[in-house]
Every structure is written in C-alpha cells, then in structure tokens.
Design brief:
heterotrimer; B: alpha/beta; 2 domains; 10-stranded mixed β-sheet; 11 helices; 23 strands; 21% helix; globular; C: alpha/beta; Rossmann fold; 4-stranded antiparallel β-sheet; 26% strand
Chain lengths: 440, 482, 249
C-alpha cells in the first residue's frame, strides 16, 4: 500500500474537521483549542495499524481506508427501527430513553421527562462550559498508551453525546437507555460523559443498531465518586459494513463499583476499549463481555485495568463464540502499581471456535509491581466438547439442539455477570436468537 | 524476620557470584570494532571456506540495515557495537590432541568453575566441550562418542571436517535475516558446539558445553547446531559463566536444533553469566536466539532453562512443530535479583497435525529486578488437533521488584485446545514462620520454598545438574530477604 | 524448664495476654483450656517467637535462657516445637525434603553432625510407621492436599523426628474425627518422657481423655484464672467456661 493510500482515511477526518470546525459544539471556548491540538496530534499519528503492539490484531487504518467513510448526514425525519431483535431489546424495561440518530440527539424521539431531583441529563453542547465536563474530557489515562491515542480523533470531531450527572447520594430511579441508530451511512463521533458523585447510583444501557455502512466512534468518559455505583450494559448489533470503535474510560473512587457488560453481536469490524483506573481504595471494577460472531466479522476487546492504589478488586471475563470466518481478539492488561498492595486482579478469556475458518487471538497480560497481591489470568480456546455433545445425544437430544444448548451454556456463564436480572434475561434471549439465526 | 521487608535494597554482597574471577592468560584479539574486515579476520582465523565467508558477509551487510529490537521490557543504555572485540582466543596451539597440551591455567579455570576437564576427574557419563571466549579449548570423550557415530566437536572443526552437514543445516532454523542479534551472530560467530546424532542412535552420554567469557570488552557469539537424525536421541546441556566486570559484556548466541522423524532433543541450560553488582553495574547482556525445528514426524524438542545470571536476558527458546505428531516443551526458571532484567519465554508454532506443546514457566523476582514472561502459542490453519498447556507462575520477593506476563495465543484452527493459566504470589509470612519454627534459617527457608515453587521445572533437568541448579536457586536469592 | 513471669503481650496494639505466670517442669504435661479469644494461640505464638506478638512486660525463660533474644529458628533448635492448629502448605516441597532440611538445620545449629540420606530415610520410616504415615505421603508436597487428619499426623511426625524439649500443641484436636484423634494422641503419648515437657492447648476436654495432663490451667481474658489437676478439665466439661469470664464461648 502506498503512503498516500495509507493516510487517506486519516486525511478525510482532518478535512472533515476543517469543514466542521466552526460548527462543532464549544467552538468559541477552551474546547476549540483542545480540538485543534487533538486533530494535530491525530494527524501526526494517523490511524492505528498492526505495527503498533496494542493494535496488533486490528488494523483500523486499513479498515477505514477501504470503507472511506464521509461524515454521516443529519437525519431529521421519522426513523424506522431495524427488524433485528436487538433494536427493541430494552423496550420492555421501565426506562428513560435517549435516541441518537446518525450520532445526533433527537429530542423528538426521546423520553426522559421527570428526572429525579439531583439527576441532570444533557446533550454534549449544553455542558461544555461546566468544569466537570472539561475535567472528564481532558483526562488521560496513560500518555504512553497507543490504544488511547485514537481518542484524539473523537475529541476533535465529537459533536453530540449524553451527559449524565448524578448528585451526591442520589439514586437514579430507572435506567437511562441510549439508543444509537445509524440510519444512514457515514461517520459519527459521539462523546458521553457520566459523573456519579459520592454514593450516587445509576444504570446506563446502550444499544447500537443500524443497517447502514456506518462508522461509530464513541468515547464514554466515566468518573465515580467515593462509594458510587454504576451499572453499564452495552449491546451492539450493527450492519456487516459498519465499523464500531468504542472507548470507555473510567476512574473509580474509594469504595465505588463499576460493573460493565458488553454484548457484541454486530458489525464488520469492532473494537471495544476499556481503560479503568482506581483512584481510591476498596473499589471494584467488573468489565465483562460476551461476543458471538459469524461470517467475516471481527471483534477486538481491549481492556486495561490500572490498580494505582491498594485494596481494589477487578475482574474481567470475556467469552465468545466464533462461527464462519470470523475473528475474535482479546487483549487485556492488569497493572498493579508499586504500593497497590492487597490487589485482587483477575482476567479470563475463553473462546469457542464453531467453524474451520474462524480464528482467535488472545493476549492477557499482567504487569505487577507489588508483591502482596492476588493476580491470575487464564485463557482457553477450543471447540465444543465432543464428549459433551456425545453425552447429550446419547440422551436423545438431536445434534443441532445439543450444540445450541452447549453454546448457550458457555455464554451464559459470563452473561450471569451482567448487572440486573431483567437485563440478563434480555441478553440471553438475544444470544439464543443469534444462535437460531446462525443455524438456519 | 518477615520474609519481605523493606530492607531489600541491601541486596547481596558482591562475593556471592563465585565465578567472578578473571584468568590472566595471553590472548589474541581481533581489532576493536566491527567492519567487514573484522568478519574476514574471524573467518580467516578459522580457516573457513569461501562459502562461509560469503555467508557471513551477507549477514553483516544485512545487519548494517537493521535496528535493535525495542519491544522487550528491558532498558539499557545504547550499545556501542564499535567499542567491543568480536574475537578473542587464548594464545596456544590451535589444535590439541591431548589434554596434556592444554594450558594448565585454562584447566584450572574450569576446575574452579566446577567443570573438571582432566582425565582422572572428568564427569562420569558427560562429554564436555569447553569454550573459552571465542574458541573451544577441549572436548572430552570424543573417541567414545565416535564409536557410536556421534559427532560432538567445536563448530570450527565441523566446518572443516563435515562441511556438507554444516552447509545443509546452518541457518536453516534461524535464518541469517532472523533478527538483529541473530544476524549479528551470523556475521561474527566464533565458536560453539556442533552435534550430529546419526539415524537410530541414542547418544550414549550427556553432551555438555561450558561457555566462559574471560576477556575484557569481548562479546561472545557462539553458534550451536544440533542435528538429530531419524529415531535418534540426545540430551545436551550448556552452562555459562563470566568474570565480574564493571562494564557490560555482550553475549549474542544462536542455537539451532533440527529433529527429524522420531528424533528427540533435550536441551538444558544453566545460565549464570555475571548479573552485575547490586547497583546494576556491569553484567552480561544476554541476547540469544534459540530455536528448534521439529522437522520430522513424531519428533520432540524439549527446552529446559535455569536462568539466574546476566544483567539483561532476552531469550525465547522456541519450537517449530512442523512434523505431524511432534511435540515441543519449554520448562523455565528465571530468577532475577538486584537490578537484573529478564524478558524471556518461548514460541510454540504449531504447523503440523496432532502437534502438542507444554510450557511451564516459573519467574522469581527479588530485589529491584524486573522479570517478564513473553510467550506465543500459534496454531496454523492446517494444524489439526493441536494441544497446548501453558502455566506461568510468578513469585515476588519484596515490594521493589516486578513481574510481568505477556502471553500471546493465536489460533486459526477450531480443533485446537489451548489452555493458559497464570498466577502471581509471594512467599507468605506464615509459610516462612512455619519453616523457621522447625529450625530452618530464613535464607534456607526462602530457598526451600522457591525450590518447591520451581519443582516442576527442576525435575526436567538431567540428574547431574539438578542438584547444582537447586543450589544455584538458593545462591541467586541470597540477600533478597531482610 | 519453662518459666513465664508476668507476661504481657500485645498484637496490633491490643493487649491479649495480661500477666501470665506459668512454670512447666521437665516431664510435665500442662493443659491450657479456655474459651475462644482467651489468648491460647497467642501464648503458643509468643513462645515460638512469631513476629507481631510483642512482649511488653514480663519474661519467658527456657532452660535458663531468655527467649526474647532468640529468633524463631534459634528457639526451634533450642528445643521448642509448635504443632500448628492450621499447618501451612508448602507447594513443591516434599514432606521428606522438608523433614530432612529441618532436622539437619537443627542438628547443625546445635553443632551436631548432619544425617546423610540413608540414615535419614531409615530414621523417618521408623518414626512414620506408628503414625500411619506411608512413603507415598512423605513424597507428596508438605500438607498440600492433605486431609485434616493427615496434616495433624504430619505435625506429630515432625515432633517425633525433631525430638523437642518442649512441645506446644495448639488445638491439635480441631478437625479430627475420633479415630484420627486416637492415632494422633497415641503418637503424642509415645513421646512423653521425663525429659520432655508439653503444653496442650485445647478448647474441649475431649483431647485430654487421650492425652492426660498433669496440670490444667484455665485461660480467660488473657490471664490464668484457675489451675488444678486433670479433674479440672472434667469440671469444665460439665459447667462450661461461663464462670471464668464474660466472653465465654
């Protein structure tokens, strides 16, 4: 590939920035300078590619060059939800709904009235003058981390997103559901900000759906005050031509708990990045996920948990089934800084290959600088147990049904780690549906 | 009495490296630095045929275009490759027919290292090739091995006497273009051992090479090549030591193993190069490329390493599992103390059907050291029914050291079953108290617990060396507890 | 043999033992009974010299020597043995290796000749047999995967091999069924001799049916509140610890 070609997509983004610069939110304040610096840094680094260790298994440069996304148009009219089960997944829950079409908030389609006192819900443009928003946006988790550099692209181009702030001690009465619909093709850049002050509690659900050839670039910045609790569930089911890049950055205060779960069913190429940093002792983070891929889908799960302070616990489990010519990736890292004694850090990745042409790459890392810690990681790859299949069939269960049972049992293991029983049931239903589709 | 007190800074008195002496012996060196002329000088010294000189020069030219790898978790000041000697040999007759002709000073050196080379004291059942800086000093038991058809000789001798074998296999596992250090080695390698086990022969004794860096500012670039023909077996052990010096010494070796159908090679290393002093001054930079090719069906290659020395270790003994049903094993103990940095592990490349591999790695970090396991298990599309089991355990002693685990698992075949487990632990105060309550002193208790932690790997060593290795584990950790 | 005077011990800044006086003469078996939290295990750890158990007042003399100056392994070599309530697992170290290392370390510390492999093996087998410890168990890693009974038998085997002058048995009966208890008690009784003293720490009287003490002390709230003959244990069995302190179990 020639040098020119290789930078085509990056160049498109730079041009998109130039064109949209004055119209982007926060064009007259601190953010304008921040955006200018971000696009400069992005232009210098370019899109990540396989020669970078942290992108070893996913070539975003090549993917985006090939797709050549322009900016997604603003969508004004009525929208039709796709047929997929995922599109209506959380509809049975009592919830606040915020709908984003092509990356822009649509108040007319949303339903978020009568929020409890102490809960603030805004669009990105409305909070940019507030210090807390600025603090969240400007954080960096690790200057040296190649995986985080791509956040610059989002910072430069972000034009909407959900900003949720829950005041001290307030408990959000029902989940906030963010529904992101790609109605038309093109790139969108979304920035969500979530601040839970001390002892605050809340649940955020995200679903990403669409049938268009879209590029979703989403950064979700989370800060949890001492003792706060955030449950976060993300569901992703987009088109085979879509590219999904999501980054979650969470800083967790003393005694706080983040429980995040991602179910990845959709899109051509997806990369989910999580950066979790403990800021106070006695905190917990659960970053778990399941994925079920087929055809030529590619899903990369990248997760860094930074134990910067003592006595925190983290647990990461990703399990996936890979059919067709799909490729799964798990890259994880648990860092235990000097002095972060009594850390409990665990990481597990398991994959089932259902087809001859599927592939799995895993790299669960430990980086440990303190001695009084409990850290473990594990990784397994394999196919369905022939013994188990045989056993089920010997009891009269037909092979297809036996396979379904075993695959669902395999994934159920990790779905159990998702927060809220109703949510778990919904996720189970989606996975079951996925499998039925796969076998027909 | 806590195992792990803040006093870890007071790591180790310098005397603990008992191999740190220097033998004052007249030597002949290549001019300082590295140019084409250096390569020609080495080749000429070894009376090499033209093809080998060309091979070296091609590697050298390629090396000039390469840059040092930076991905390992080690840091050191830039190496000035022009400020080193690439050839040094003790001055004496090139060829020795009997031990009587060996300079007594050299014999004394090996005696001090615990490797008696004189006839009456030779290790029973172990044939030894002793390499001093850039040349082999002596090889024992040659006649006995020859009776079995086994060739065990210095590489330079193999080039002269068995050029067809050398030409056929040299660089066939680690190509001259492989990596920065392997390419450098290809250009300037000076000595090493050559082993050839004919078809169906079970080598009648353990083969062993002891490498010794003596000269100041001198790199050692040995090249070892072991070929096991169909149905043969050999167990080979290398040991390494160097004098204690303030400046760093470079060691960039290449080891190539070839196992044909039904052959088995067991390769063990006890690496005890000088690790530097407690402030991190001096010590050997150990940048080594070791790779085995299970070329034949049902072949097996097993690497066992006990790594206690070197300031920096960069080493990934690997197996290419090409033959169907072939098996690769990697058993490793890597101990780092003081300011040592270890980045070591293995690669198991599964190409053939029904290939299996097993990785057991035990990393022990103490003092202010850093210890990284880096490994790859890769299963190619056509490799059916691959099995791998990997276990990497880390033990930390003290709160100033670090342990890292970087395992890569890549599968393109659904029939593979790959399992990886890793744990990190420390020596608990309770365990230590228990041992001491039984009358065992603190350092001995630590050595006992660490030896227990390493047991699975120690068991893989040939009997003759297991005891030595166990002692080494204890010695390496001296001063690591308050 | 053992003289404890006005012993005060704090753990993590909290005073656990609040003035203990205890004399154990050669050949005597003393039982120390008491409710949970009375300081029984603390006493055993402070005798063994465990870190974190700080003697703030008083003294412990063993065969005329002040123990406070001695490290854990030095005390062991001098003849103090502690049978742990929860013996530690040492992965990868076989019981055999552990026993040999311990025995030879003690012999060396006492200026005695170390045993070679052959003599050691003979000695271990001789000691192991009555305790039903077979070669297979000796070859396994110390306490790893041992049942509760196996762990306690291994403790008694260590005691038998190391031949201490003073053995402290900390809740040796915990987790044992009656058959295992008998085996362990027989092992301990076989080691009773005019030169060897023992301190048997237990919550329940049951063990004392099998290891019959010469003297029984009741420890409560960090003090010895009553001392008597073996009949005291029976009395406690009937009436419980209720009369001996508020924190009775």
């Amino acid at each position: 590939m020639s040098g020119n070609m290789a930078e085509k997509a990056a160049q498109n983004f730079v041009e998109a920035y130039e064109a949209a610069r004055t119209a982007l939110p926060g064009a007259d304040g601190w953010l304008a300078r921040r955006r200018a610096a971000a696009i400069e840094s992005f232009a210098g680094a370019g899109l990540p590619h396989r020669r970078l260790e942290e992108w070893k298994y996913t070539d975003l440069r090549q993917t985006l060059d090939k797709a050549g996304f322009a900016s997604a148009p603003e969508h004004m009219g009525a929208v039709v939800l796709p047929e997929a089960a995922a599109a209506s997944a959380f509809s049975t829950l009592d919830r606040y709904v915020l709908v984003f079409v092509n990356g822009r908030f649509r108040a007319d389609l949303s339903k978020a009235a009568r929020l409890p006192k102490g809960v603030e819900l805004h669009g990105l443009a409305d909070v940019l003058t507030e210090q807390w928003a600025k603090d969240l946006i400007e954080r960096r988790f690790d200057e040296a981390r190649q995986a985080e550099e791509i956040v610059d692209l989002n910072t430069a181009l972000m034009n909407d997103g959900m900003c949720l702030r829950i005041r001290k001690g307030v408990k959000l009465d029902k989940p906030v559901h963010l529904l992101f619909l790609a109605a038309d093709g093109g790139a969108s850049h979304t920035r969500n900000l979530i601040l839970l002050e001390e002892e605050a509690e809340g649940t955020v659900l995200e679903s990403h759906i669409g049938e268009a050839a879209s590029f979703a670039d989403i950064v979700t910045d989370v800060a949890l005050g001492d003792g706060a609790k955030l449950d976060h569930v993300k569901l992703q089911d987009e088109s085979a031509d879509a590219v999904h890049l999501a980054t979650l950055r969470g800083e967790i205060g003393a005694g706080a708990r983040l429980s995040s779960f991602t179910l990845t069913l959709g899109c051509g190429v997806s990369r989910g990045q999580s950066f979790i940093r403990f800021a106070g002792e006695g905190a917990e983070a659960h970053v778990n996920g399941a994925y079920a891929l087929r055809a030529k889908q590619h899903a990369d799960q990248f997760c860094v948990v930074d134990h910067a302070v003592p006595r925190c616990a983290s647990n990461t489990v990703f399990k996936g089934v890979l059919d067709g010519q799909s490729e799964g990736v798990f890259q994880g890292k648990v860092i235990v800084r000097p002095d972060a004694q009594k850390t409990d850090g665990r990481q597990m990745t398991q994959a089932l290959l259902l087809s001859r042409d599927a592939a799995m790459n895993a790299k669960p890392e430990l980086e440990i600088y303190a001695d009084d810690v409990q850290c473990a990681h594990g990784s397994t790859v394999g196919e369905l147990s022939k013994d188990a299949l045989f056993y089920l069939r010997s009891r009269g269960i037909p092979e297809a049904e036996a396979r379904r049972l075993l695959v669902l049992a395999f994934l159920d293991d990790v779905i159990t780690l998702a927060p809220h029983e109703e949510v778990r049931d919904i996720l189970r239903g989606l996975v079951s549906g996925w499998f039925e589709e796969a076998s027909t | 009495m806590a195992a792990v007190r803040e006093t870890v800074e007071t790591v180790g008195e310098v005397e603990k490296y008992k191999y740190g002496f220097f033998t004052d012996i007249e030597s002949e060196k290549a001019p300082l630095g590295l140019t084409e002329d250096t390569v020609r000088f080495i080749s000429a010294k070894k009376n090499e045929p033209a093809w080998l000189l060309e091979w070296r020069l091609a590697a050298f030219r390629r090396w000039l275009t390469m840059t040092e790898p930076t991905w390992a978790k080690v840091s050191y000041p830039p190496i000035d490759f022009q400020d080193a000697y690439y050839y040094s040999a003790p001055k004496q007759q090139a060829k020795l027919d009997s031990l009587d002709q060996v300079d007594p000073k050299l014999l004394e050196t090996y005696e001090k290292l615990g490797i008696p080379l004189t006839e009456q004291k030779m290790l029973a059942g172990v044939a030894v090739d002793a390499v001093f800086d850039s040349v082999s000093v002596v090889t024992t038991f040659k006649e006995k091995l020859a009776e079995a058809g086994v060739i065990f000789c210095p590489m330079s001798e193999a080039v002269a006497k068995h050029p067809e074998l050398v030409k056929k296999y040299l660089g066939s596992v680690v190509p001259t273009s492989d990596n920065f250090y392997a390419t450098l080695n290809s250009a300037v390698f000076s000595e090493g051992s050559f082993v050839y086990i004919p078809e169906g022969v079970r080598c009648p004794m353990e083969l062993s090479t002891y490498f010794r860096i003596n000269e100041k500012q001198t790199g050692q670039f040995e090249r070892t090549l072991i070929i096991a023909e169909k149905g043969s077996y050999v167990s080979y052990l290398e040991g390494c030591t160097a004098p204690q010096r303030d400046e760093n010494q470079l060691h960039a070796a290449v080891v190539e193993l070839v196992a044909l159908d039904d052959a088995e090679i067991k390769y063990s290393t006890v690496q005890n190069w000088f690790p530097g002093d407690e402030e991190g001054k001096g010590g050997v930079y150990n940048f080594v490329t070791k790779r085995g090719d299970c070329r034949g069906a049902n072949s097996k290659i097993s690497w066992t390493q006990v790594e206690t020395g070197s300031a920096i270790t960069w080493k990934y003994p690997s197996c290419i599992l090409r033959g169907d049903n072939s098996r690769g094993e990697f058993y490793s103990i890597a101990i780092s103390n003081g300011r040592q940095q270890v980045d070591s592990g293995t690669k198991m490349i599964h190409l053939g059907r029904n290939t299996t591999s097993r990785i057991i790695s035990k990393g022990i970090s103490a003092g202010k050291s850093s210890n990284t396991y880096r490994g790859l298990v890769s299963v190619h599309r056509k490799a059916e029914n691959v099995r791998n089991f990997t276990q990497c355990d880390s033990l930390l002693i003290g709160s100033k050291c670090s342990a890292h685990t970087v395992p890569y698992v890549e599968t393109k075949n659904p029939s593979a079953v790959l399992e990886h487990e890793a744990t990190t632990s420390k020596i608990s105060d309770d365990q230590l108290f228990y041992c001491m309550q039984r009358g065992i002193g603190e350092e001995e208790a630590v050595a006992l617990i660490v030896n227990g932690f390493c047991r699975d790997v120690l068991q893989q060593l040939p009997m003759e060396f297991a005891v030595e290795a166990q002692k080494l584990v204890g010695i390496s950790l001296e001063g690591s507890v308050g | 043999m053992l003289e404890i005077r006005n012993l005060h011990v704090t753990v993590d800044g909290k005073e656990i033992l609040k003035g203990i006086d205890l004399d154990v003469a050669a050949g005597e078996v003393h039982a120390i009974m008491g409710p949970n939290g009375s300081g029984k295990s603390t006493l055993s750890y402070v005798l063994a010299g465990r870190e974190g158990y700080e003697v703030t007042e008083g003294s412990i003399r063993f065969n005329g020597k002040d123990l406070s100056e001695m490290g854990v392994d030095e005390r062991a070599a001098a003849g103090i043995f502690l049978a742990f309530q929860y013996p530690l697992e040492i992965p990868g170290v076989t019981t055999m290796t552990f026993l040999k290392t311990a025995l030879n370390a003690q012999r060396k510390a006492r200026g005695e000749e170390e045993l070679d492999a052959v003599r050691f093996l003979k000695l271990v087998r001789e000691k192991a047999k009555p305790l039903n410890v077979n070669d297979d168990m000796l070859k396994r890693a110390l306490n790893v995967g041992y049942s509760g009974g196996e762990k306690k038998r291994a403790e008694v085997l260590q005691m038998s091999l190391l031949e201490p002058a003073l053995a402290v048995l900390d809740e040796t009966d915990s987790g044992l069924d009656i058959d295992a208890l008998k085996t362990v008690a027989d092992g301990v009784n076989a080691l009773r001799s005019p030169e060897r003293s023992m301190i048997v720490i237990t919550h329940y009287q049951r063990l004392l049916d099998y290891i019959v003490p010469d003297v029984v002390h009741v420890l409560s709230g960090g003090r010895i509140v009553k001392t008597g003959g073996k009949e005291l244990a029976l009395e406690l069995e009937k009436s419980g610890y209720a009369g001996y302190g508020a924190d009775a179990a």
